[in-house]
Amino acid sequence: MKILLSSHLFHPSVGGTEEVAWLLAHEFAAAGHVVKVVTSVAADDGADFPFQVIRRPGPRQLLALTRWCDAVLQNNISLRTAWPLLVAPRPLVISHHTWMARADGATGWQERVKKFTSRRAVNIAVSKALSEHLGAPSTIIGNPYRDKLFRQHPAIPRDLELVFVGRLVSDKGADLLLEALGSLFALGLRPRLTIIGEGPEEASLRDQSARLGLGDQVHFAGKKVRAEVVQLLQRHRIMIVPSRWREPFGLVALEGIACGCVIIASDGGGLPEAVGPCGITFRRGEVAELSRCIAALLRPDADLEKMRAAAPAHLARHTASEVSAQYLRVLEEAVQRSLR
Q: What predicted TM-score, i.e. pTM, was given to this entire model?
């Protein structure tokens, strides 16, 4: 099968959407399919991929690529790369990774056109929550993670308590975590927290940590490359994902689970699906409830091993090979229907 994978964001850009596109393209190629990736991210990195990457194609090139392929897979819907299908019809499969709405929840003409287009495409949603949001039939396929990289290492001692991984912006809720940590003083709990990531809120978070008297209890580790993140996760017992935003899925939770962390996450969007039986959730934005969850998992009688024991079965549904196989079944069915 000749697959044209359209992903607005792609390597060397870094993020969950880029990660999924990278993994799928590699797995499709490894399965013997011919893959070409179209992206708006410009780069001259000389990356040696087993597929072609076409960056910022012009209209004529984009039309030629659409005519070349058997099916178009859009990694998030893109009107900018969908128009050639009006001239050269091909099966369109859209993998939805985020809400089809503006940041304030409103919808404009672009969102309405995207919803109209989705109703005439084959849809994949990364979570049940996102599928319900779409208002169109969809197959639910959770996101994959790099299972060859994110894994437990028995030789590394799990000698630290809490870890947060993410961009330091208000949506990710690191400030809520610091507030919860401060409120644990009354219970005599002073767990250590490692914050991995960078962003515009870092200075205010450092000020907040000092104001709350957290001192050496909180370590700002800064930005880390993947291997460094893995090594740090393997040393921690609990990962906190306190997002204010309704995360459509929650790839970071899978990565934490794979490294042996038990998860505490907010209950919005698709995060509970990413966590599965490998952690617990709290009401989004509720600091007091987050504090209670942390305290519960820090107790000596907390059965963290039971949650870790559930990880292999949960993660098996999210390996790159398993997720790509599900995508390929959807693509192949779409191509077969178009030939009838």
A: 0.93
